[in-house]
From TrEMBL, chain A:
<dbReference type="GO" id="GO:0031460">
    <property type="term" value="P:glycine betaine transport"/>
</dbReference>
<dbReference type="GO" id="GO:0055085">
    <property type="term" value="P:transmembrane transport"/>
</dbReference>
<keyword id="KW-0813">Transport</keyword>
<keyword id="KW-1133">Transmembrane helix</keyword>
<protein>
    <submittedName>
        <fullName>Osmoprotectant uptake system permease</fullName>
    </submittedName>
</protein>
<dbReference type="Pfam" id="PF00528">
    <property type="entry name" value="BPD_transp_1"/>
</dbReference>
<feature type="transmembrane region" description="Helical">
    <location>
        <begin position="95"/>
        <end position="123"/>
    </location>
</feature>
<dbReference type="InterPro" id="IPR000515">
    <property type="entry name" value="MetI-like"/>
</dbReference>
<feature type="transmembrane region" description="Helical">
    <location>
        <begin position="44"/>
        <end position="74"/>
    </location>
</feature>
From TrEMBL, chain B:
<dbReference type="GO" id="GO:0005886">
    <property type="term" value="C:plasma membrane"/>
</dbReference>
<keyword id="KW-0812">Transmembrane</keyword>
<keyword id="KW-0472">Membrane</keyword>
<keyword id="KW-0813">Transport</keyword>
<dbReference type="GO" id="GO:0055085">
    <property type="term" value="P:transmembrane transport"/>
</dbReference>
<feature type="transmembrane region" description="Helical">
    <location>
        <begin position="51"/>
        <end position="71"/>
    </location>
</feature>
<dbReference type="InterPro" id="IPR051204">
    <property type="entry name" value="ABC_transp_perm/SBD"/>
</dbReference>
<protein>
    <submittedName>
        <fullName>ABC transporter permease</fullName>
    </submittedName>
</protein>
<dbReference type="Pfam" id="PF00528">
    <property type="entry name" value="BPD_transp_1"/>
</dbReference>
Length: 246, 395
């Protein structure tokens, strides 16, 4: 339970701020006395938060599925020929700046949700793929041989030995991917996604620092909440493996 | 005893190149190779492979792709060198295809008409690059060969881009529309990114030394820098506006220096903050991971602590420190593009202006150089790290 406390606190803070932003009006008024409006009200902050989360969650889910499948394929005997290329692509691809990937998606797919979702998936794939490969390749070959020698089928070896052992590394990849995607989705509001980046961009365009601050605080809290969630998950996973090994 | 994986027989057929070449063939025939736009905003008409290059050009590309497909499965002796030459020539000649396209399809007497690179061309470029990566991997090429190839391809592209045939290319139109802007953006981008990396390298080194001297600092410092890394860039830029604005209005000296809530000052601060985690972590790990017996041996040889540090620890730690520098530099180049949102300039300016005006070529003019810069920094620093890796002395 102690693992999950920071997550719950951060989520409560995030939701509380989304709901109670108008209460803080005097505070923001002091920061930006010359504007008629100091609280972002073009869209409910809950709506933006939900949309932001949806974009990140969908892209993370798809990216995880595709990346783990590709990682498993490239480490099987039938796909081993593709391993050098796949691992090269995973590492070279990560040198592409996420903003540039986001920007490139627009000429191809147009403005709106689709290009953002596509860019987030594509970019989110790479850290997960890299970690899946590292996790599966980093296993001691004798473990696999021992499992095969015990009479397990290759499928059983994969599901009961390799994936559980590589799971922690894969989870770390998903964490990196989600952290990057929360940041990239926020920038996505420049190409027409409705995310928590909206107040920041609107504030920058209109010179309204209060808007910028509201958006920035919420984005920061969202990122921290997601990160502490993964921290707790990794601990739980570690504890689970430790129990299973006993 | 390390387990060595059985290496594939070099004469065995390759299964990766045929897949890539086949995919390239399908895509290049099914997607638009390029578009002709009457002006900057109107989408214009697309042209497939045959319409863009004529039957001759289409046949030539198909032959080259089919050839590389066959080369990779037929029992040829020098498979990979041949493939490498073929693919490199194709890559180097790619802009020539655009010249042919412009010459064939660009209407006469339409000064605003421009040629736009289509999805087919991009796919061809992407898949050919993957093929090069695969072939180089099979050849186990050292750093000289890829560098030579890169120089060859870049030189050929530059020559073709400088020629007259590509004047109508939309990217070049955007480049010429604002003379001097591109160079200015390049320098701003480089100054911000490398300035931040340099500052954070010095800071990180100091922090790492502090952490080594007093282990009590390890948790707080690592905690603080990884906390900074978690906060999304847009939020950090946003959060810095108010305090820096307040500072600038409180101290006119700062204002005279150009420090304001927006502009280069918050951008640089945020970039430095982001760069700290990879630098601190790698420097710390590199300097502490040195095997005990080596330092013992050095001390036993009568080295002073200072000598141990400069002649043993630092050289051994260098590759890992450079790796941190590489991650930091790539990240800083990307984040500098985001910093354009708070008025810091650089290539991000083109990206966000282009997005605002729905001018996709302007977006590309910002995005492509940003990617190129990141790839270049990656290549150079990887090579540097590899060349600094200490090699065991031969007996």
């Amino acid at each position: 339970m102690r693992n999950w406390l920071p997550v719950l606190l951060l989520i409560a803070l995030l939701c509380g701020l989304c709901a109670a932003m108008p209460v803080l009006e005097p505070l923001f008024r002091g920061l930006q006395p010359d504007k008629a409006r100091v609280i972002y009200q073009r869209e409910s902050l809950f709506f933006l938060l939900g949309h932001h989360l949806m974009l990140v969650a969908v892209s993370a889910a798809v990216a995880t599925l595709v990346a783990v499948a590709a990682g498993i394929f490239a480490t099987r005997p039938s796909g081993r020929d593709f391993l050098p290329l796949v691992s090269q692509v995973a590492s070279i691809g990560q040198t592409f700046p996420p903003v540039a990937v986001l920007a490139l998606a627009v000429p191809v797919l147009g403005f709106g949700e689709a290009p953002i979702l596509f860019a987030l998936m594509l970019y989110g794939l790479l850290p997960i793929l890299r970690n899946t490969l590292a996790g599966l390749e980093g296993l001691d070959p004798t473990v696999r041989e021992a499992a095969l020698g015990m009479g397990m089928s290759p499928w059983q070896v994969l599901c009961q030995v390799e994936l559980p052992l590589a799971g922690r590394v894969i989870l770390a990849g998903i964490r990196t991917s989600v952290t990057i995607n929360i940041a990239t989705a926020a920038i996505g509001s420049t190409i027409g996604a409705r995310t928590l980046g909206d107040p920041v961009i609107a504030g920058l365009v209109n010179g309204n620092t209060a808007y910028v601050l509201q958006g920035a605080i919420l984005i920061g809290l969202l990122a921290l909440a997601a990160d502490s969630l993964f921290e707790a998950l990794e601990r739980a996973w570690g504890a689970g493996v430790a129990i299973a090994n006993k | 005893m390390p387990v060595t994986r059985s290496l594939p027989d070099p004469r065995a057929p390759n299964r990766v190149v045929p897949v890539l070449a086949g995919l390239a063939l399908v895509l290049v025939w099914s997607l638009d190779f390029g578009r002709i736009q009457p002006n900057r905003i109107v989408p214009g008409t697309g042209h497939g492979l045959v319409s863009a290059l004529g039957w001759g050009g289409a046949a030539l590309i198909s032959l080259a792709l089919g050839g590389s497909l066959l080369l990779s499965i037929l029992p040829v002796r020098r498979r990979y060198p041949c493939l490498l030459v073929l693919i490199t020539v194709l890559l180097a000649a790619l802009p020539q295809l655009l010249v042919v396209f412009a010459a064939r399809q660009l209407p006469e007497g339409a000064p605003y008409a421009r040629t736009v690179i289509g999805a087919g061309f991009w796919c061809l470029l992407f898949l050919l690059s993957l093929m090069v990566v695969e072939v180089l991997g099979r050849l186990r090429a050292r750093y000289g060969v890829p560098l030579l190839l890169l120089a060859l391809i870049a030189a050929s592209w530059l020559v073709l881009l400088r020629g007259d045939g590509l004047d109508s290319l939309s990217l070049l139109r955007e480049y010429q529309a604002q003379p001097g802007k591109f160079e200015q953006a390049l320098w701003t981008h480089l100054a911000l990114a490398f300035g931040a990396v340099a500052i954070s390298a010095v800071l990180a080194f100091a922090l790492a030394l502090r952490m080594i001297r007093s282990p009590g600092w390890q948790r707080p410092i690592l905690g603080a820098v990884s906390f900074l890394q978690t906060i999304p860039s847009l939020a950090v830029f946003g959060l810095l506006i108010a305090p820096l604005g307040a500072l600038a209005s409180a101290f006119p000296v700062l204002q005279a220096l150009g420090v304001r809530g927006i502009g280069w000052a918050p951008a640089l601060l945020a970039l430095v903050a982001y760069s700290l985690l990879p630098m601190v972590r790698n420097t710390f790990v590199a300097l502490t991971d040195i095997p005990e017996h080596l330092t013992d041996a050095a001390r036993g040889m009568g080295m002073t602590e200072r000598q141990v540090f400069f002649q043993l620890k630092l050289p051994l730690a260098m590759p890992v420190i450079i790796e941190g520098l590489r991650i930091t530099t790539i990240q800083a180049i990307g984040l500098t593009a985001v910093a354009a949102l708070i008025g810091a300039g650089g290539f991000g300016d083109f990206i966000f202006q282009g997005l605002g005006q729905a001018a996709m070529d302007l977006v590309l003019l910002g995005a492509l150089p940003t990617i190129a810069l990141a790839l270049l920094a990656d290549a150079l620093l990887t090579m540097l790290a590899a060349s600094l890796r200490p090699t065991p002395a031969r007996a």
